[in-house]
Write a structure and sequence with these properties.
By secondary structure, the protein is an all-alpha fold. Helix content is 81%, strand content 0%. The protein folds into three domains: 2-131, Up-down Bundle (Ferritin), CATH 1.20.1260; 155-207 and 286-373, no CATH class; 213-276, no CATH class. It is flat.
């Protein structure tokens, strides 16, 4: 029995390392910055070494390791990385890495103790990388300086929650109206109006957010350019502190900072990425693209509870709307497991129960209002 549990533990450890090695390699291939891509390649090599160690442990127990392939979660993250780029998934990967860094705690093997240290180091490195679309930032220096403000987000989380907002809010709206009236046209009008209003509001809010960020970044770059012109010695010292915070010895950090400051053509780009965490080529992305994406994500979620009313009416349309929405909620719950690591059945079922509970509540309220008005 204990041997079986040991094998299961080795297999679970091995799979996590295979997922990490594959995912880091894809990150390296997708990353535009050579230095950051090299970091990902080294992380991948480290995870490969760990996976090989668990292969060896399994073979010592006369267990043939199964073929190496990423899990479905890693597969989805790989697809998202290739489709949208490393920054879309990096915050989620960082969160998962932090959780996985504790997975070896309490395991008795000597390998587990060694790998635990490695995984915690990986989590710290990823945490630095995920703070900025420009690469490894010197956020602490920028905060001490007090003139720059920045922020980051989790694009994958935002995408999932955007679709969830559309589905739950419009499902509740549709059920409330359906409870108050038997008029199919009224339900459709309310649902479509809610879809357009909600999606438009989301798009406008996202446009304002991204456009404000772009303007903030542009102002930060302007400030940085002025500081380079007026106080090059101070900027060189800040750059040296950043490199020291990344682990370089002081003399090497000062030498590298001096070398970078001598390159007048790219020093603003370097300081923008290292000190401010800004990619000057993107400045947070396109406000219009962000607005369009938010509109589409909300609308995709919102269409689930509406479209049954195009084909059916009465109680059957309500049941179909609840059923289709339940399916959509389960898919969203499954997508959330990419960030939480929980089981699909647990997350999907929880999402369905919460969403349908809100729909039943608004249906009941609508029913009471309809009876009162009648």
């Amino acid at each position: 029995m204990s041997n079986k549990k040991e094998v299961e533990r080795y297999l679970e450890n091995r799979q996590k390392e295979i997922d990490g090695a594959t995912l880091y390699l894809v990150l390296a291939e997708s990353e535009k910055q050579p230095q950051l891509a090299e970091v990902y390649r080294r992380l991948s090599a480290s995870e490969e070494k760990h996976a090989a160690a668990w292969d060896h442990k399994l073979k010592k127990l006369n267990i043939t390791p199964p073929p190496r392939k990423p899990s479905w979660r890693a597969g989805v993250m790989i697809w998202l990385t290739k489709r949208f780029g490393p920054q879309f998934v990096l915050p989620t990967i960082t969160g998962n890495e932090k959780a996985d860094s504790r997975a070896y705690d309490g395991q008795p093997d000597a390998e587990a103790r060694e790998f635990s240290r490695d995984e915690k180091s990986h989590a710290r490195m990823l945490s630095m990388a995920s703070k900025s679309s420009g690469g490894m930032p010197g956020g602490s220096v920028a905060q001490m300086e007090g003139r720059h403000r920045g922020g980051g987000g989790n694009a994958l989380r935002a995408a999932v929650l955007g679709a969830n907002d559309g589905l739950v809010s419009i499902l509740s709206l549709v059920m409330g109206v359906a409870g108050a009236t038997n008029d199919n046209a009224a339900v459709l009008i309310a649902g479509l109006a809610g879809l357009l209003a909600g999606a438009g509001s989301m798009a406008l809010g996202e446009w304002l957010s991204v456009q404000s960020s772009r303007e903030l970044y542009e102002n930060q770059l302007k400030i940085e350019a002025e500081e380079i012109e007026e106080s090059p010695e101070e900027e060189q010292e800040e750059l040296s502190l950043i490199y020291q915070s990344k682990g370089l010895p002081e003399d090497r950090a000062r030498e590298l900072a001096a070398h970078m400051m001598a390159d007048k053509g790219s020093i603003l780009d370097t300081l923008a990425r290292e000190e401010l965490g800004i990619d000057p080529e993107e400045l947070g992305g396109s406000a219009y693209e962000a607005a369009f994406t938010s509109f589409i994500l909300f609308a995709v979620g919102a269409i689930f509870p509406i479209f049954p009313f195009f084909f059916w009416s009465g109680s059957f349309a309500i049941y179909m709307s609840m059923a289709v929405s339940g399916l959509g909620l389960f898919v969203i719950g499954a997508a959330i497991t990419l960030m939480t690591g929980r089981g699909i059945l647990f997350s999907g079922t929880r999402q369905v129960l919460v969403g349908l509970a809100a729909a039943v509540l608004t249906y009941g309220i609508g029913r009471l209002i309809g009876v009162s008005l009648a």
